Amino acid sequence: MNDSVFDYSRLYRNGLPDPAPKWAPFPKYYFIGGNNDPEQIPIEGLIDAAASVLRREGSKLAIYNLGLGPQGYPGLRQFVADKSKKHRGINLPIDDVLITTGSGQGLDMISNMLINPGDTILAEEYCYQGALNRFRKLGAKIEGMKLDADGIVIDALSSQLADLKSRGITPKFIYTIPTIQNPTASILPLDRRHALLRLAREYNVCIFEDECYADLIWDGIEAPPALYALDPECVLHIGSFSKCLAPALRLGYLFAPWEQMKRLLPLKGDSGTGALDQMVVAEYFSKTFDTHVNHLNGVLREKLRVMTEAVEREFGASAECWTPKGGIFLWIKLPESVDVRKLIKPAAEAGLVFNEGPAWAVSADNSFNSLRLCFAMPDHQTIRDGVATLAQVCYEQTGIPIRSGNVQRA
Fold first, then answer.
1. Does residue 24 lie in a domain region?
2. Taking phi first (over 0 means left), then psi (-120 to 50 degrees means alpha), and beta for anything else, what does residue 152 get?
3. Could you tell me whether strands 320-321 and 355-356 are parallel, antiparallel, or unpaired per DSSP bridges?
4. 46 in Cβ contact with 284 (< 8 Å)
5. How many CB atoms lie within 10 A of CB 380?
6. Alpha helical stretches, state H, 138-274
7. 127 and 186 Cβ atoms separated by less than 8 Å
8. Which domain holds residue 347?
9. Where does a domain end: 265, 288, 311?
10. Is residue 408 part of a domain?
């Protein structure tokens, strides 16, 4: 037997991502990712739904896509269409609904359909890291759109589009999370939505609407209709069940008219999204969606209150929090003397992980002192202790926040 070591390294293609580290358990204070509250998974309801739908339709699992075509289980597509009409003002046939393996697959499909290397796209200046990474991987040039507490600043976008046009540049699309923006959790008002659509038509720029968090809106806050509801001709739309039910189910959806859908389907790249997951979610949510989501939102809003109070107590005037209108994230700005990237290692050594601002922004120039904390998964005491730990680490590294109430816990 030849004792030489087989060398795979010479076989790898150019441009592979960095190697993955081995999986490690979550640290004590885990404030990253889009995980939800484990106590809110409706386990018994899902068990009952699985038993019911398997007895009725389980034999179809013998066939790829249940023998019902590549767009997904019709029962789930119909539920998505019905919920989108009721809650987001979208009126569409199920032929315009595609079930995807998480919203990430929808991001991949639309990006692959539209982006050529060198294309310019517009994204909110603070933006979902997963989308930015996908766009950059395909060679897109990303221009950041100015945000305020209500989302995209339309006057600034109008000037930006005019400037690009003067340089002979037509952006390929505008990527936006208008309803519970990630990471700021704002909601774009109706007048701005209409203005955004007018600009899209004026400059012939497609709008890529991501509504993954649109189900998670606090009671008493109203969201305007989705952009897709207002003008489906120039909008492509994705959504998800990860945030309103369970991330591990890996279920999302995409809306597009057939002229675009027929170009998207060949890009799906699998033999169908998990059919059993689709069947169970359709069975469960067709009877319980509003009750489940209303309860979940109450739980999440209380966790946000706990986190906001902890940040105010530990950081005082040193932390400026954007006010979430829903969702699972708190976006925080610290003084300009703090570069949050320098806190990552000492925080990890203290058992805490968070999302640093530059990873969630088009540019590090205006985000180096910002961070995102997810409040959905940890319990109340873990939130309080974790924020105290973060403040202690920040103080030790930067002298901020000035110590007063922020005293290290015994």
1. no
2. beta
3. unpaired
4. yes
5. 14
6. 154-166, 190-203, 227-230, 258-264
7. no
8. 29-42+291-398
9. 288
10. no
Select from 340, 331, 320, 333 the least CA-distant residue to 375: 331
Helix (H) or strand (E) holding 148: strand 147-148
What pLDDT is stored for residue 73 in this prediction? 97
Report residues of the chain scoring pLDDT below 50. Answer: 405-410
Q: Write out the H or E segment, with its range, that includes residue 301.
A: helix 275-315
Total count of domains within the chain: 2
Taking the C-alpha atoms of residue 352 and residue 340, their distance in angstroms, rounded to an integer, is 13
What the block records as the tokens of 139 is 């060679």
Residue 328 confidence (pLDDT)? 98
Rg (CA), the chain: 22
Count the residues in the chain. Answer: 410
Cis peptide before 178 (omega within 30 of 0): no
What are the start-end ranges of the H helices in 316-359?
344-349
pLDDT score for 5: 84
What is the helix, strand, coil percentage profile of the chain, to 5?
45, 15, 40
Residue 372 · residue 329 · CB < 8 Å:
yes
In eight-state DSSP terms, residue 187 is: B
Identify whether residues 235 and 275 lie together within a single domain.
Answer: yes
Distance of CA 173 to the CA centre of its chain: 18
Q: For 122-181, how does the pLDDT look when each residue is reduced to its tens digit (9 = 90+)?
A: 999 999 999 999 999 999 999 999 999 999 999 999 999 999 999 999 999 999 999 999
- The residue with tokens 């038993």 is 51
Q: If DSSP codes are grouped into helix, strand and coil, which group holds residue 372? A: strand
- Could you say which of 258, 288, 318 is where a domain stops? 288
All residues at 6 or more sequence positions from 337 whose CB lies less than 8 Å from its CB, including other chains: 369, 398, 400
Backbone angles phi, psi at 182, to 5 degrees: -110, 110
- What tokens were used for 268? 């799906």
Q: Where does residue 387 fall: left (phi above 0), alpha (psi -120 to 50 degrees), or beta otherwise?
A: alpha
Q: What distance in Å separates the CA atoms of residue 390 and residue 88, rounded to the nearest whole number?
A: 37
209 within some domain? yes
Residue partners of 24: CB distance under 8 A and separation at least 6 = none
Q: What pTM value is reported for the model? A: 0.94
Q: Based on the domain organization, do 250 and 302 belong to the same domain?
A: no
- Cβ proximity of 253 and 275 under 8 Å: no
The answer to whether residues 208 and 342 belong to one domain is no
